[in-house]
Amino acid sequence: LQEEYPDLVFVENTELESEQLLSLVWEQVIDYTVADSNEVAITRRFYPELRVAFDLNAADHLAWAFPPGEDHSLQDKANEYLRSLRDSGELQRLLDRYYSYVANFDYVGTRRYMRHIEQRLPDFRAWFEEAGEKMNIDWRLLAAIGYQESHWNPKAISPTGVRGLMMLTQDTMKQLGLKASRHNPQASIEGGARYIAQVKNKIPKRITEPDRTWMALAAYNIGSGHLEDARILAQSEGDNPDKWIDVKKYLPLLSQKKWYSRVRHGYARGQEPVRYVENIRSYYDILVWINEREHPPQIPTRALTITSPVL
């Protein structure tokens, strides 16, 4: 780049990670930086105003480099490790965990969500924290569920009859032993926490985290019966019924007669719980990130002595 633009001035910084430099751009402390496209894709949901000006080079494959020589033992071990990740399905689960939302990045929705975190969440945060502690659920996950359900609107009403911040039915409130109005945000949050805990307890104990939580969220949305149907289909087709990345492929098939005729609970709009879980995962990740920024790690003083523009 400097060969093409000899007057370009840049500063190399060895004190800060790439995400920290992107944060400084977002905070308008520096004008721009150079970052790996994968890091930008992951980071954009936290800094939705970030824009990519241009690509420095064409897309290329990532690779691990090893020292030259006749001893290939380190390379052999690395290849063995990567094969085990691929064959076990762990590599695909990692890609799903960190990149599944990238193709569906919603700038407007993310900005609205972050604005609501500032304007609406403070009114309910203490109740989310209290309910989360009672039911042993991360309060930020409960808050993410609440946002997906109602955008933290305690007066929300759905045409299907669910109401309140956590969008519960009257029968569910009664079954949970709660007599308060569904429009009472504290009662609604407590009810939602109790209900998600009940649903999670129905998930087979052998299913580990985080798959257990993602399946519980899907069941919270579509019902435990339809989730079990998707798990049965996954197993019958040779996939793992205990892994969300496999089960979520079969939920949308429950809207097709070819598939729902094979299971007990029949037709379901199976794409909805998949979107539901993905949205909550994204909302949760953003809340965790913001929560951690309330207690940021100390940045070395020297790291901030940079002259913009920085590459």
TrEMBL record:
<dbReference type="InterPro" id="IPR008258">
    <property type="entry name" value="Transglycosylase_SLT_dom_1"/>
</dbReference>
<dbReference type="InterPro" id="IPR023346">
    <property type="entry name" value="Lysozyme-like_dom_sf"/>
</dbReference>
<feature type="domain" description="Transglycosylase SLT">
    <location>
        <begin position="128"/>
        <end position="237"/>
    </location>
</feature>
<dbReference type="Pfam" id="PF01464">
    <property type="entry name" value="SLT"/>
</dbReference>
<protein>
    <submittedName>
        <fullName>Membrane-bound lytic murein transglycosylase F</fullName>
    </submittedName>
</protein>
